[in-house]
Specification:
Length: 511
């Protein structure tokens, strides 16, 4: 069997297996949409159907919203919009493009590791470790922007490995161009991608002439022209970013430095990385860390192997892993969205650890390498079984701010010919959820009939429906007013909240 055929078969197996794994039951797990997922899906649906965002702008660069003035990143919206051209507008349909990006990550990890280690089996092991990393699997099933930075990091590492194998201006320019395009993937990439460009220049300095560097700069500039044009026409965005992420502080310099150092070490806390993971059950099951237990051994072994090999691309990978928390440090908090850059580098460092153990002549290190890789698969089986279970869905439900699916679907079903639908603003992010599930049901006309109220108006049409949280005193008083009839109570998945749907009583006439 030829090498190309073997590679093609492995790539096909990765795509098929990854797709089956990452897209399974997306309508069921995660248990609910996060409000950011719902809004991202709505922006993508608007682009897919009209070419304009929810504010009516034609193909914008960033998707500015009242709740987040800096705007959503373009990669997520446009990729999801492309997917929604062929996929149904459902929770699973909206999440599927992101799941396929996660599969692309696994495929790119195979090619990048194969090029770095000059070994097909090392590429397969690296791809397997990425696919089975708990944090990559979880975030690969959420419609959120940070994951979209990973394909560009892996594409860059692949291009860098090919450059190391055979330096040429084209390969150097390709590596820089991938990073430039990656700046459209996620806000934190604006900080990290230029850092990776500097690493690339450091590697290329040994063999490249200034002409190639200039050409790479020109290619990067061309890739960034749309972004530059947006910033020139929207100069307020920088101030909006500072305000949104609270980057400005009033602490003393010593306090600020001490806080940042503490944050850096927090990220490398073994409990966070290998045991319990992120505090939020959106990003964790709390039964495993960001990475498998085996990484607790493979990461230090990999870093030691990199130090001994003195391989330039190995130094880049180690530096990438050690600098992954930079954006979290700048923003002042270890937040999973801002440390997603750690994922590809951690897997690469762990791959160095596996290769170092396997290349030893003694039998014990080889046995350890095999045992560690097998343990990753076994741990993932246990993790996956719990993640897909009702126990996780119920336990995690309250962490998902859009936990109103059942209530919204019931309200839509009961709002048939209602003249107006009154929705309490005591329901978090309900305006996003109502719009999402109305479109999902093919009932877009209901969007315009919705009235979001804090205090119910005195004049209400005769044919109207209303929803409010049962724990609200105002909601409890409606049932005894005689003006509204309590028709159904809808609990959330975990039973932590109940929503009451009312209909205007038939005896009332329109005011």
């Amino acid at each position: 069997m030829t090498s190309r055929l073997t590679t093609a078969l492995i790539a096909a197996a990765i795509v098929l297996g990854g797709t089956l794994l990452y897209t399974r039951d997306l309508d069921r797990v995660p248990p609910y949409l996060i409000h950011d997922e719902a809004q991202g899906a709505l922006q993508a649906h608007a682009i897919a159907t009209t070419g304009r965002d929810l504010s009516g702008r034609l193909l914008p660069m960033y998707f500015t919203e009242p709740e987040f003035p800096p705007g959503r990143d373009p990669a997520l919206i446009y990729v999801t919009a492309l997917g929604l051209k062929v996929l149904p507008f459902t929770e699973a349909g909206a999440r599927t493009p992101t799941a396929l990006i996660a599969v692309l990550n696994v495929l790119l990890m195979f090619f990048a590791a194969r090029a770095i280690f000059q070994s097909t089996w090392a590429g397969v092991v690296a791809a397997l470790m990425l696919a089975l990393a708990p944090i990559h699997f979880i975030r690969g099933r959420l419609l959120l922007s940070p994951l979209y930075s990973i394909p560009f990091v892996l594409g860059w590492l692949w291009a860098l490995a090919r450059f190391e194998e055979q330096p040429s201006p084209k390969r150097f320019i390709a590596a820089c161009a991938v990073l430039a395009i990656g700046m459209y993937s996620y806000l934190a990439a604006v900080v990290m991608m230029p850092l990776y460009v500097l690493m690339t220049v450091g590697i290329a300095a040994r063999s490249m002439r200034w002409r190639a560097v200039v050409l790479a700069a020109v290619a990067g500039f061309v890739c960034l022209l749309p972004m530059a044009a947006w910033y020139l026409t929207h100069p307020e965005r920088n101030a909006q970013i500072v305000s949104a992420y609270q980057l400005a502080g009033d602490r003393s310099l010593a306090e600020a430095i001490g806080s940042r150092i503490n944050l850096y070490w927090q990220f490398f806390d073994p409990s966070y990385l290998f045991v319990s993971g992120d505090p939020s059950m959106v990003n964790s099951t709390r039964t495993s860390g960001l990475f498998p237990w085996a990484f607790a051994a493979l990461l230090p072994i990999g870093l030691w192997a990199i130090a001994r090999r003195r391989d330039p691309i190995g130094w880049v990978i180690a530096a990438g892993f050690l600098t992954a928390p930079i954006v979290s440090i700048i923003s002042g908090g270890i937040e999973m969205n801002r440390v997603m850059f750690a994922i590809p580098f951690a897997v690469m460092v762990a791959s160095y650890g596996v290769v170092a153990l396997w290349q030893g002549r003694a039998l014990l290190p080889r046995f350890a390498a095999a045992a560690l890789v097998v343990s990753i698969a076994l741990q993932f089986i246990s993790f996956h079984r719990y993640y897909m279970s009702d126990s996780y869905r119920i336990g995690a439900a309250q962490w998902f701010s859009g936990s109103v699916r059942e209530a919204m679907r019931e309200l839509i079903a009961r709002s048939g010919d209602a003249e107006a639908v009154y929705i309490s603003t005591n329901i978090e992010w309900v305006h996003r959820m109502w719009r999402f599930y109305a479109i999902e049901a093919g009932r877009q006309e209901l969007i315009g009939r919705a009235f979001y109220y804090k205090d119910l108006p005195s004049k209400v049409p005769a044919r109207a429906t209303l929803i409010c949280p049962a724990e609200s005193p105002a909601c409890a008083s409606l049932g005894g007013s005689g003006a509204w009839r309590d028709v159904v109570r809808v609990p959330t998945l975990d039973g932590s909240r109940t929503f009451v749907i009312f209909e205007r009583t038939p005896s009332d006439k329109a005011d």
